[in-house]
């Protein structure tokens, strides 16, 4: 009798793999743009839009950790790559568990708190987003167990007093050069 246990470790980004905020009005520069307008001062600056939401799942036969972060230290201008004054902390997110697995100690306290509802600023890679919490089976499970939603925002200056608050200066106050600023956000799923 032989039993072959092959490790399964898979992350799937289901929606929102490309997030792009476009600022066209003074109201957007002053209040920001958020996928969660109910908790943001940006209500009314744009219509509610699922394009600011990323959904992903993790299927794993073992406990795991998910690291994330921006590839660059700042956003970089596309028209002029010397435009690097748009800092990562102008973008933030909330993370919600929408799967069957009840997350508690598995959630890393940095950059977001144990309630899964803090607004965290984007940081440079690598930062632990979700970890195993030291439990025996911890977060092992299929995609229905480990489903998550990240709701993004830009320029909303939220999260005061948290571990990684967003930039508290509104975009209109930062004197940024108009450009299309980009960075890649990396996710790395690691078996523990």
Would you kindly provide a written description of the structure presented here, covering whatever features stand out?
With 192 residues, the chain is mostly beta strands. The radius of gyration is 18 Å and the shape is elongated. Helices cover 3% and strands 29% of the residues.
> What is the β-strand count?
11
The secondary-structure class comes to mainly beta
Q: What is the global morphology?
A: elongated
Topology pattern, helix = H, strand = E: EHEEEEEEEEEE
* Radius of gyration from the alpha-carbon trace, in angstroms: 18 Å
**Segments where pLDDT lies below 50 for 5+ residues?**
105-115
Mean pLDDT: 85
How large is the share of residues in beta strands?
25-35%
Helix content: under 10%
Termini separation:
28 Å
Number of continuous helical runs = 1
The largest sheet, given as strand count, sense and whether it forms a barrel, is: 6 strands, antiparallel
